[in-house]
Design the sequence.
């Protein structure tokens, strides 16, 4: 190093006492040594390339994406030859396909010394800018297996302007000739991984497609048969961002520019790869803080840890628990899967998720909510996380800018929604923070999930949305919020919505009113009743636009007994007033006259807006009991003749009432469903509510493990359930709607229901926030669809065997471990993949 001539600049600097042109001294300085998944496929493979990023560079590219470390870097630390060898060994032990030396030229002497002492068992990659000295390359002969050079410029003037590299073209051509001489023809293993050879990279620059095309011509002329990696992911970085002289390249390349050069590469018949424009952006630039130090000499990376765990776990706030590793999962096209990440550390962390997987990634921070009533004191089982008051992870806050403030520990939910046209394969998903990173492996099974056949509704409470946001019901602001809440419901599998033709007679104190959400405006004059369906039409249109195509008409009579009419406003003589309600008996002739006038017109309306009768569901009243039977039958007789061909469906616990014909189409609570399934009741719906489904059966209470929430998907498939109803999508009221609650502070309806039963979404500042419970139940719906697909491909008996320990499950007896459902899905997905080959 006393007179440095390693690069073509031959600056002659004694790097033991001062820095060379490369901004490096005499000791190897490394910013990052990690598995890296974003190289060409024959380099990264499935296990990653063991990249070692050196600081400094003999080029001076104005657009350098690694400008954090290529100049006078504050990142990284010095390495001795011995430490460098140990780093190589660690990367080998991690399963790296190769050891990838990035920007190594100015440390070639130390690299050669190290490789003579220890030659890795995997190939060594020399990943450089192409501006190399032939003499230096010859010093490395026999030590380097794969060369990965850039060929940036055919235009020497452009090379001088952008990289201060005189004679770049002839220098790079000579260097690449030497690389080809050393390696010979490319050699690949049985998995297509490059073992020996060369790949030449060419980066398309904005406004300089001619330079790229000329470079491709020279590659074809000088290196026939050598594969080319044509890169379209140029991102303005470095000096380009703040020096006016580079304003012409301070943009990404256009699709036209990309296609122009790619088409020319195809025209020339060059083998290789074309990287996508979608790979442009800072998210593919590594974190170079791995070896940075902070006060007291502590490594910053030691302050942060990341642990991946199953989406079926719940990380309690104060609990110190060891979780099983969750390194991988598979998913079908159109499916959303997820993993969780526990991040420990202090202060603000910048979180990144990098992947080339064909998925939409969403990252959420898990927030904790309090729960006073975790379980009923006299009704619980052993499968609760706790039955005491506690705080639970549930609300999911989107991480949109990558910044997460970690105060000891934060838990992240990472959602991966597989594209409908996704290519099958094994994809790494890297999550990183403050120099630490972990890899989750996603296997995409290239088979599309069938459409959801299950009808799924959660009662949608529009008045709660208006109250929480302080907007007038059906104002412009309210409609905008309704759209957001419907859309989130649809995204999580809800395809039927409670539609308040009248204000729902649900969870209302006797003699009191909930805010009026009546969609049908009614007037009465001497000629009778008249109906304005304009608001209902907007509701239907909004729901359909959000992906909801089925409509559950609000109950025609009050809850638990069918004794009265719901609260209904009618305009008479120019005055809009409450005409029907608690003061109106269910069999009141005037109320019957209203229904007889309304129902035929309501059916005509739905027909005109394209909603089939099969996509409508009507209710009389909830859960008729022995004392309610007579009233229920009378109420039913009022409406049934006017709903020909329609489904009247109500919650029911008694099988005898079904056989007596009280309710022909029952929605059965899961803890009462056994006689219905044993007798093969057709078109069977399964429902759970807050009061009874708290022992043995699945539910979504905050205090229950996620397995009890998700298991319902498998159970519903096994028992041919056609519909599922839950009473609370967003019930942000106390019991009987006596008061509005803050769901971030009160999760049990003021001590009435076990926490989490009343709602599965939270009111964010501008719209809904999802919950962990909502995400997990969406997985249940995906499970059900996957099992249906497997049944179609393999037959029912084969799929039942895949259930393993759950083959004989009922709604009350089923596998309880957090690993059962993820493991089941791996078996099912593998079987589907094999059947569809």
Sequence:
């Amino acid at each position: 190093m006393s007179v440095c001539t390693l690069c073509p600049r031959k600056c002659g600097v004694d790097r033991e006492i001062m820095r060379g042109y490369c901004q490096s001294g005499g000791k190897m300085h490394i910013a990052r040594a990690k598995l890296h998944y974003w190289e060409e496929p024959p380099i990264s493979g499935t296990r990653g390339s063991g990249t070692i990023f050196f600081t400094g560079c003999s080029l001076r590219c104005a657009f350098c994406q690694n400008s954090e470390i290529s100049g006078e870097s504050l990142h990284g630390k010095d390495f001795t030859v011995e430490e460098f060898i140990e780093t190589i060994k660690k990367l080998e032990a991690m399963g790296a396909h190769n050891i990838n030396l990035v920007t190594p030229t100015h440390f070639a002497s130390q690299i050669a010394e190290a490789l003579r002492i220890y030659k890795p068992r995997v190939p060594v990659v020399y990943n450089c800018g192409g501006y190399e000295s032939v003499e230096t390359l010859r010093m490395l002969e026999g030590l380097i297996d794969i060369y990965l050079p850039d060929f940036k410029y055919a235009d020497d003037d452009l090379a001088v302007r952008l990289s201060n590299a005189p004679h770049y073209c002839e220098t790079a051509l000579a260097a690449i000739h030497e690389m080809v001489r050393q390696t010979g023809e490319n050699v690949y293993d049985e998995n297509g991984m490059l073992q020996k050879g060369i790949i030449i990279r060419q980066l398309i620059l904005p406004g300089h497609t001619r330079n790229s095309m000329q470079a491709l011509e020279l590659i074809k002329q000088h290196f026939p048969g050598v594969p080319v990696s044509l890169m379209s992911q140029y991102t303005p970085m470095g000096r380009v961002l703040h020096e006016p002289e580079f304003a012409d390249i301070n943009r990404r390349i256009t699709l036209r520019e990309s296609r122009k050069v790619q088409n020319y590469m195809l025209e020339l018949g060059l083998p290789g790869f074309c990287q996508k424009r979608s790979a442009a952006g800072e998210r593919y630039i590594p974190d170079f803080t791995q070896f940075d130090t902070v006060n007291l000499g502590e490594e910053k990376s030691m302050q942060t840890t990341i642990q991946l765990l199953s989406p079926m776990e719940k990380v309690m706030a104060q609990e110190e628990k060891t979780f099983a590793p969750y390194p991988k999962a598979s998913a079908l096209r159109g499916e959303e899967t997820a993993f969780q990440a526990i991040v420990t550390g202090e202060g603000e962390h910048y979180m990144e998720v990098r992947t080339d997987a064909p998925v939409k990634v969403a990252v959420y921070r898990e927030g904790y909510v309090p729960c006073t009533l975790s379980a009923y004191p006299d009704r619980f089982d052993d499968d609760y996380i706790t039955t005491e008051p506690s705080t639970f992870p549930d609300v999911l806050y989107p991480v949109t800018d990558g910044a997460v403030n970690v105060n000891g520990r934060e838990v992240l939910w990472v959602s991966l929604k597989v594209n409908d046209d996704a290519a099958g394969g094994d994809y790494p998903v890297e999550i990183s923070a403050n120099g630490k990173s972990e890899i989750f492996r996603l296997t995409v099974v290239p088979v599309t999930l069938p459409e959801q056949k299950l009808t799924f509704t959660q009662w949608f409470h529009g008045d709660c949305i208006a109250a929480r946001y302080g907007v007038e019901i059906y104002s412009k602001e309210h409609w905008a919020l309704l759209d957001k809440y419907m859309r989130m419901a649809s995204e999580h599998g809800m395809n039927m919505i409670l539609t308040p033709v009248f204000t729902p007679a649900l969870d209302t104190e006797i003699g009191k009113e909930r805010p009026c959400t009546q969609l049908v405006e009614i007037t009465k004059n001497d000629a009778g009743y008249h109906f304005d369906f304009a608001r209902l039409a907007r509701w239907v249109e909004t729901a359909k636009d959000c992906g909801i195509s089925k409509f559950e008409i609000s109950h025609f009579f009050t809850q638990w007994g069918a004794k009265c009419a719901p609260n209904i406003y009618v305009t008479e003589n120019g005055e809009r007033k409450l005409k029907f309600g608690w003061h109106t008996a269910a069999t009141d002739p005037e109320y019957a006259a209203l229904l007889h006038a309304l129902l035929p017109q309501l059916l005509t309306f739905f027909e005109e807006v394209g909603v089939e009768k099969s996509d409508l569901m009507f209710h009389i009243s909830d859960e008729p009991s022995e004392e309610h039977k007579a009233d229920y039958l009378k109420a039913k007789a009022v409406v049934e003749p006017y709903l020909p061909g329609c489904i009247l469906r109500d919650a029911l616990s008694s099988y005898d009432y079904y056989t007596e014909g009280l309710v022909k189409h029952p929605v059965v609570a899961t803890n009462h469903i056994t006689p219905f399934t044993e007798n093969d009741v057709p078109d069977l719906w399964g429902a759970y509510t807050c009061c009874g489904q708290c022992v043995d059966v699945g539910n979504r209470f905050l205090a229950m493990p996620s397995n009890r929430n998700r298991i319902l998907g498998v159970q519903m498939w096994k028992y041919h359930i056609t519909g599922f109803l839950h009473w609370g999508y967003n019930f942000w009221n106390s019991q009987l709607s006596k008061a509005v609650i803050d769901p971030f502070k009160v999760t049990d309806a003021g001590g009435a229901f076990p926490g989490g039963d009343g709602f599965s979404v939270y009111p964010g500042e501008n719209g809904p926030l999802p919950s962990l419970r909502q995400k997990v139940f969406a997985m249940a719906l995906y499970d059900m669809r996957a099992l249906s697909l497997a049944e179609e491909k393999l037959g029912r008996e084969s799929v039942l065997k895949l259930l393993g320990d759950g083959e004989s499950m009922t709604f009350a007896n089923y596998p309880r471990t957090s690993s059962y459902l993820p493991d089941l899905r791996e078996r099912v997905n593998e079987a589907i993949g094999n059947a569809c080959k």
Summary: The chain is about 25% helix and 25% strand. Residues 805 and 815 are 7 Å apart (CA to CA). The first strand starts at residue 28 and ends at 36.
